[in-house]
Protein 1
Amino acid sequence: MSFMYDEAIDGPLPAVDRTELAAALRTAAPGLELLTEREDLRPFECDGLAAYRTVPLIVALPSTVDEVRAVLTVAAARGVPVVARGAGTGLSGGAMPLEKGILLVMAKFNRILDIDAEAGIARVQPGVRNLAISQAAAPHGLYYAPDPSSQIACSIGGNVAENAGGVHCLKYGLTVHNILKVDMLTIEGELITLGSDALDSPGFDLLALFTGSEGMLGVIVEVTVKLLPKPRSVKVLMASFDDVALAGGAVAKIIGAGVIPGGLEMMDNLAIRAAEDFIHADYPVDAEAILLCELDGAHDDVEEDAERVGALLRESGACELRVARDESERQRFWAGRKNAFPAVGRISPDYYCMDGTIPRRELPRVLQGIAALSEEYGLKVANVFHAGDGNMHPLILFDANQPGEMDRAEALGGRILELCVEVGGSITGEHGVGREKINQMCVQFKHDEIEYFHAVKAAFDPSGLLNPGKNIPTLHRCAEFGAMHVHGGHLPFPELERF
């Protein structure tokens, strides 16, 4: 027996009248802000993966839990799908709305409710920006560790939905490792708490299951995060290489030596040049690759590890090794890496950001494979990634105004993800599956595994109304994979026809 969200509703949804639905929502929640005019709806037609666009039927902007509950109960009663959205910075189409659905925007849930410095925790609403948590905790000598490149804008609710990471996730973990508790509403409006303020809670670990579920199981209304003491000492090394494969090999040597850096990031020449031109981080623009290695902790430990890592980098073929002289230069080194995506956007009309994860030992092989695929498809690829944990972000450069280039970029992206699976990796590390990678889910997982995913979805959302068509492919889609492809933002998914 299979549990399919496209089989959970018999037949197509009834026609939804925007005016009538808006009236029902206002009756259920008189203070609820709604957007219904097309010019007001259009800014919400996509997330950070702008290639896929759909104007929603209605945008709801609740400011209280009761208003969120009202939206969900009205939607459930009428069979209207709901897509929850945070800051809209996601890169996999996970927050892309549905033409016949409600887009539930949680931007007004932007308050830090409490910081308990002694316990090392903070209670925050889902619309709070990632960076704002660390800024609020700074007077207590604390910070929130996960730091996606978009941390100045992305929201903690979206981080939980996608299980976001960042440049320091190698040592400090992903979002799932840095939260204690989530309060969420089911599609029926029931408030459920997953996890607890303690380090563990009885029963199944539903908090871990929920983290990374991309809005398919419930809507987040509050998150309790862990706060860590700021490291006493921090040092950043930048190593230059004249061969990308040598840089990849150095990563495995550092980890193999028992050193776990706070961050270990890699950029290839195309990314280096773009970032240097944009940020002026004093990067070596003639290098084929650079590694940024940050070490933190007690002063003596950092100094000892810096010497060990420096020796390993030289043994691995580094042609230049620099250590940040002060905090200003450390910040400048990281600014170049964290602004690599917008920097690449300055040198190409369009780019397609991928997100795959591989075993560290396979870095040289996969980098060589990406180079070969880049040549095969005739598109440049800039490589920027979290080298320490094997989370790669190849940026495929293309021009959507040139016939066929977007199709080639999508096809190249799919081949890169399939290469990641081939070497024992995954099609995503932190961006999620969303709409973007749903074909490659059919490569990553077997028939029975996908059935179990649908069973979990059905346990939380039996009517299949929360963010349908994302994350998990139907078995029919996987059977047809190869004949059905995503082209030019058009998504020929049979499971989405009713929406």
Protein 2
Amino acid sequence: MKNMTRVAGGKGDFQLVHHLTLSGGQFEIGRALTEEARRLGWSPVPVDPVVGRARRTWFERHWPQQHARMDGAAAALGLDPDQDELALDGLSYLPEGTGCSALWIPPSAATDGHGRVGRTYDFFPTTAGEVMGGAPRPHELPMASRPYVITTVPDEGPATTVITMNDLDGCMDGINAAGLAVMLLVADIENAAPPLDATPQVGLSSVQLPRFLVETCENADQAKQALLGAKHYDHGMSLHYLVADAHGQAFVWERGRDGREHIVEFGDGPLCVTNHLLHLNPDPMSLPADGPGSFRTYDRLRTLYERSKGTAMSGADLRAALRAVAQPEDPAAPFRTLWSTVFDTAERTLSTRFYLGDGRPYSDELVFSPR
């Protein structure tokens, strides 16, 4: 079953947001996602047949939900699901890569005992052509102007709700019916550069990784094992991920510049993350000064830490902390906070407000639940 409704934005607003709800088998869900992606201009990417065969095998063994959806994609395209020359995933209709700030408040540090994690999603309010230093194409929309909230209720496995800017089979934020929440952020913004080669590889792409976790894991311990056992790639744009569960556990997963994987935890206390590698700067009180290319990553983390240390925080307090680190509506500033999300892992909800344009209020806060 497929249902799509407009939930935020309208004529003249920067963002127009749809909520797409899909239920049934993963094959049917994959067919429906592919049909929507094709409507948005997506087409399958050619891939080396040896790599294509290895990719399908990897998904079949490690992420069967995605493998079944790829079979559904093949049906939507009229292709043999066993062909190896085209990648039938990566339903991307916009470029990827973000700034962002996030703050996890464990149940022990919450006024009502609910674990919550809040995040600002910061991105360019311009077209892809402008970001690459050129002029926008005729009728080209800003890259982040058409996000989706997608709820899937499969016949087997956990229901999920995700927010995506650019990839219908990936996401930037996600939560499942077990209360596992995952979000991605740029990890090393001072050294970030556009990817030179976006050819699909074997394993999880950077935006598929959060979707993989909310579809295959129920808690932080399972997510750690899944991440350490998975094969993943990021096309050179280093990202890290904040993972939190309904049992009060949270961690940040990131890969160092030497390729090693790191799990960063702060015990039973708030966990702040912005856009620098936490394993290189574990002490919020000893961060370096921001430089021209850091986009206030250290200042934003200090702000979140100061607001959360040694005090119990309510949901309203968390939202106020997110507003304190949101991007300014400054014509000279490269980013805008395009949405601001609060996950309540106890209630299994995702609440978010979307950016409608400079000088305009954000949308009303919308609450979604995969249950």
Protein 3
Amino acid sequence: MNPHRGLIHHLIIRVTNARKSAGFYEPVFTYLGYELAGSSFDENYGYQDWKRWDLDTPHEISICQADLKFADQKHVRGAVGHHDHLAFCAESREDVDRFYAEVLIPLEQGNLATIEDPPCDCPEYGEGYYATFFHDPDGLKYEFVINPNHLHKKDQRKSKVSES
């Protein structure tokens, strides 16, 4: 089986103002290993395409300006059609701390992000779960997380499957 089967091929995030939001997404995606693959901004529409070329599979996240007729409709967390939040994997606790210090604090100081929670342990999500939570200019929620408990659960699953 292809190890990439079922992974996300691409994701489009709609934003109110693509040019303004680019100021948020550029440092976030650059830190996460994405490269800018294309962009365009004009008075009615704008977009940026970000790709990870190192994964041997198409993996792209685009920010696209919302249709002008919907510009006054704000993001409502929990509404149908809107994501609740998107979490990106970190390499380590130190990676979460570095992202917070190098990316999020400057973004918040530039009024391009809102930090909901600085890096913290989140035992309610599992042992070792460590994350920072933040929002883009439109209020879309994101998380940068290390979850070593995932590997422990994966090993437990393998043990159960091999016993069967």
Protein 4
Amino acid sequence: MLHHLSFAVTDIARSAVFYDAVLAPLGYGRVWQDDTFIGYGSEPGKDVFALKLRPQNAAVPGDGFHVAFAASSRQAVDAFHSAALAHGGTDNGCSGLHPEYGPDYYAAFVIDPDGYRIEAVITESSAP
């Protein structure tokens, strides 16, 4: 359904350090960039998530909004959470099973340095 999603950020260098660290365990990296834009994805030139520098007018949506990134394993969810906390993120729901969302819903919830609510999730029961 979606082609890509972008966040307006106030400090592109700080956000790059954060998202490089949290997206790497999920299999995503930088696929495009310039001085005011960084695109992340798994194929060169095909970003699915982007950061756009907007130092004067970055507006973060309220707590009804969040972005959930797909993870390939529970270990990837755990690594996402650890990387987020180590790089300026704030815990918003521990890494682990969240049965309130389903019996196999394994996720971690964090708030990035600009205040965006993000998540990594896998819902496969056979996930290690």
